[in-house]
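Chain X:
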Amino acid sequence: MDKMIALRLPDLQAELRQKGNAEYIISMDVARSKAQNNNQTAFLVGRITRGKDKSIKSVAIVNIYIPPNGLNFTQQAIIMKKLQKAYNAQVCVVDTNGLGKGVADRLVEEIVDPNTGQLYEAWDCINDETFKSLVPNSPKILYSLNATSINTNIIINFWDYVETFRLHLLPTDKNASYLSEVTGVKSGKRKKTETTQMDEMEKIDCMAVHMRTDTLLEQISNLEVEKRGGNFIVKQITKGIDKDMFSALVYLLYVVQVHLNAKVEINIDYSDYMLYN
């Protein structure tokens, strides 16, 4: 956890939409329960920074969104399509083992938002013919991840991003200077900051992302790793604390590594990590 806390960069800011030409990836973990206090769907947005050789230098988690529980597959798919449009994300990851399949089925179709009338285009799947759009020339945006079959690789990849400090997280809202009001210039007028240019709702939304990052670390601190039959598994120490944000995070990092950064291989001895057992 000391290493996880060290990943919280004081100057990192929440981002509610694409900044400039930045590259983003979005991942979701689909809720497995309709209970209001358990198994919430989680959406994570990662901003990718590449080095001069175009390999992944770092991934910053700049938004975490938790919708109300009880949404159907279409409603959750609309949220994913809205986020993709806001960030111009080229890849959106869904764990299609279990309930995620229902969301993926909707993502490969055109959807009209009943609240706004906005038509969202159908997506095609990047890596799985099971989720094939029937709409010609649909953009390949959906990445289907069957996490159960590759759980060990997902965990090892997460460790790698933590150990090499290639994962960046938001600081606490109290340590986020851009959310603080700055006053006291000599003219008596309020000094302009990025925050003063936000509307009040945007500021609240940004603060919420910082607080959800706190929750993400709480979820991680409640996990332990076991080795079973040569494979790693993650389980909760206290069942009442979810791991939805953690799941969305590790899915995101795995797809970054195997799809967006395929030429870079992981070559680290992980035997020492069994100390977490």
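Chain Y:
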Amino acid sequence: MNVIDLFSGCGGLSYGFVEAGCNVIIGVDNDEAALKTFEFNHPNSKGLNLDLFNDHFIDKLADEVGNKEVDIIVGGPPCQGFSLTGSRNAEDPRNKLYKAMFIAAKKFNPKAILIENVPSIEKLYGGKFYDLIISEFEKNGNYNFKSQILYAPDYGVPQIRRRIFFIGIRKDIGQVKFPNKTNDPNNYVTCSDAISDLPSLENTLGEEVQNYSSNPKTEYQKLMRKNANKIYNHIATNHTEEVKKVISLVPDGGNYKDLPNGVGTSRKFNEAWTRYNSKKPSKTIDTGHRNHFHYKYNRIPTVRENARLQSFPDNFIFIGNKTQQYRQVGNAVPPLLSYNVAKEILRIIGDSNEEA
């Protein structure tokens, strides 16, 4: 199945579809560092920097596709205007980038469409943009469609992350179905399950390429290390002694409320000085805001640790400076969540593909 990923970023959504057996032919984004990461980790795919605000992007995209059939179009349009941690500006022009998905759908008539976004799109601004996406599906008229909020830990991702997925299946093929859960609260993958095998970096900032310091301790770690024999992107942040001292006063799973009076007052908000809980999935991975800390060590998680918590395998290497790498990881769809959605889409449209 040939896939186009609009708003690909570094390729978390794409990677899940590749792991499910798809051929991602093109990833589109306007972040050059993210596109370099995408191409590095998707050697059979082409990265395109296109302006999706301009409807003429479809001509360049069609030229690149050539005579290939496009079976699936996926994308996670920017969510800054909808996110609870973003600007929440109804007039943010990025709020309308979802239209690019439907311009591409009209051109290529794929078997399936997948749009991913933040759950708050359902209710923010009176559900205005949620309704607009639904109306675009209705205007197209070729697709059965549904939306559903998926919770990443239910699919083996060691991170508290909720995302809404809109799936459209062409009417001549079948109905929409979302994947069954693979995990429940009794067997969620925890922070410790995910990253306890990685070097501590207690007395060093780390090197660009490192050896594993232990054997994998959990099934999840085995999965992440399956095709890797070295560690990349595992460089610690050089905090001041004062910052490290404040972090050291926060217990496993604690936050600023656990600090003594007068300590850590430079950060006074809900997520301030939050230490991950070793026995639970991590907090939602952000784009590097330096407010979340390792459950054991007195530092923020490294890019690799965040990547593990996002379910990126260790052989997925991030390109760019450290700030760009953190942003790529935080903006991505967890590949393991994407994989489960992809498998269900392929199950629905697979018979049609075989008959063709």
